[in-house]
Write a structure and sequence with these properties.
The structure is a single chain. This protein is α+β, with helices and mostly antiparallel strands and 316 residues long. Strands 2-1-5-4-3 form a 5-stranded antiparallel β-sheet, covered by helices on one side. Strands 7-9-10-12-11 form a 5-stranded mixed β-sheet, with helices on one face. α5 packs across α9.
Length: 316
Amino acid sequence: MFDVVHHARLPLCITDPHSPDNPIVFVNPAFCALTGYSAEEVIGANCRFLQGAETTPESVAEVRALVENRAVDTVEIVNYRKDGTPFINALQIGPIFDADGNLRFFFGSQLDITQKRTVEDSARRLADDEILHRLKNIVNVMTVITKLSARHHSSVTEFGDMLTARLAALSEVHFSNALRPGDDMMLSNLLGSIVSAYAAIDERQFAVKGPDVVVPPNLVSPMSIVLHELSTNAVKYGALGAESGRVDVDWTVEGAGPGEQLRLTWTERGGPSIAAPTRTGGTGIIRNILKATGGQLEFEWAPEGLVSTLLVPLRA
């Protein structure tokens, strides 16, 4: 058993609660590799020497409570290596009893989860940014749609019905299509739902053309978000904000097998003259989202209208 613990790749230390200050009496090589300390440097010391400036009092209190209650659990605590670099330690602590049920030692296993938490925090920030951006866009889109549609409805009742239907369509494309990660969806159906939501005048402002393509489950949400952002910008700044404007969307499938990919072109015409934005904002968000799927998104800010080219793999 000692050989197993000694050679285990999981960092491990053992402390003696019967000696003053519950000192370390054993560490395996994996512990030394993680912390940078040699066994000789840590034997006889309490584990608190791994704490530092960013170690929270709450995490220290959790560790102390586990020792006092002789319980087994895991605490996330910021610890420090010998060279001073911090890491997030998923520290599992538990008692070791002898055959008669008497407490003999405590074990502590360490797991560096710094990278995992960094990735999670980055993903969470990206998701929060996207949600806030989308909520702001809904308000802006409805403002433009309301102004344009009011010119074509003399009846208050008809105008109210139109706004109700448009709000329902926006709800569907923003909060339903993009939140179905397990469902297959035809690309034409996805575009169709967006047409009904964003065409401020009517569906004649949109034209879609391409072969039947099933959007894989892992792409339903990213594709929805990208198409919503393009549509929103077209309403706020481009072709869909003008009565004479229109958007043509066409796509092809290139390659085969693992290399199969979708090429979609979004072309705006008949709107106001445009120029490349000085802030990346929403375009930066959707580029990052698409990049995470292995895809890419390019923009051509032509004076007569925006041309966007989306290239995304159809195989996970």
